[in-house]
Amino acid sequence: MSAQDPLFTENENPNLQRSLVEPRALLSTILSGAAWIAAMFASIPLFSVLYGLIVRGGHRLSLEVFTELPPAGFEEGGGFGNAIVGTLVTVGIGALISIPFGIMAAIFLGELEPNGKVAYAARFCAKTLTGLPSILAGVFAYAMVVLTTGTYSAPAAGVALALLMLPTVVLTAEEAMRMVSAPMKNAAYGMGCTRSQVVWKIVLPTALPGILTGVMLAVARAAGETAPLLFTALFSSYWFVENGKADLMTPIASLSVLIYNFSGMPYDNQIELAWTASLVLVMLVLLFNILARVLGRKKV
């Protein structure tokens, strides 16, 4: 609209910039400021925990704590290298069990029979498992694996962690697959693709960022669990690899159980190691969460 336009009048303001004194703009500014303040208050616990862990356990970070075994009693020094490896092994076993079954279940729920009775029952079970106390997962794995094999082991811990990881993988993967646009799938069907080809060539590659986000969140949760490992992996002060051979059917160390054990000891060295192990575990979980955020940025 120009000044020569008959609809233009001098009383109209051609300036389209928003004025902060307008009621809606003022309300928006106030709400935005309140949201920022709430976000900063919500981040205080996280940063306070990180600050406390860095102050109490950061000074013990060294190559020694990542390579040596936990000290006993009155010993000084030592580390928790076997606990780091044990955590990665148990979480890895849980991921190997939960991820394939979780993705296959999500394919069934999201693509094959999304509105069937079995699908509704499966979703209900998955949502129920999200609130399952972790100690019950440990009791289940203890009854099913430990009592059957007669020993605490890494596979028993993996089963317990897989039970906790499975619902997160299933629900997030199903939601990611549902977000794949219908026109894209219909175009593939129109070109003569079968249902399996659409799932493997269209749905899964497109939904991969969302699926990986769910996997990373499930792994982050499993890495910090303690109660299931007390019933399944127990603890060990030694490496599970001897003479180049790995024996997973023995008790295995983990960071969370080491923290639990060392934090109650009356020795300063073990308490300091517990703080350092807590810092390492928090950074490990934080790394998984950052990976989940990065992988989830790509929209399906």
Offer a few descriptive terms.
single chain; 300 residues; mainly alpha; MetI-like fold; two-stranded antiparallel sheet; 11 helices; 2 strands
Secondary structure: elements and pairs:
Elements: H1 23-57, H2 63-67, H3 81-112, H4 117-130, H5 134-149, H6 154-178, H7 182-190, H8 195-223, H9 227-232, E1 241-242, E2 245-246, H10 255-262, H11 268-295
Antiparallel strand pairs: 1-2
Helix pairs in contact: 1-11, 3-6, 3-8, 4-6, 5-6, 6-8, 7-8, 8-11, 10-11
What would you note in describing this structure?
Helix content is 69%, strand content 1%. With 300 residues, the protein is mostly helical. The protein has a single domain, classed as MetI-like (MetI-like fold, Orthogonal Bundle). A two-stranded antiparallel sheet has the order 1-2. Strand 1 and strand 2 (245-246) form a beta hairpin. Helix 1 (23-57) runs antiparallel to helix 11 and helix 6 (154-178) crosses helix 8 (195-223). This is Phosphate transport system permease protein PstA. It is a multi-pass membrane protein.
Q: Termini separation (Å)?
A: 40 Å
Indicate the CATH topology: MetI-like fold
By DSSP (H or I, 4+ residues per run), the number of helices equals: 11
Low-confidence stretches: none
CATH H-level superfamily: MetI-like
The CATH first-level class comes to: Mainly Alpha
Task: Give the overall form.
Answer: flat
Subcellular location: Cell inner membrane; Cell membrane
Protein name: Phosphate transport system permease protein PstA
Membrane topology: Multi-pass membrane protein
GO molecular function: phosphate transmembrane transporter activity
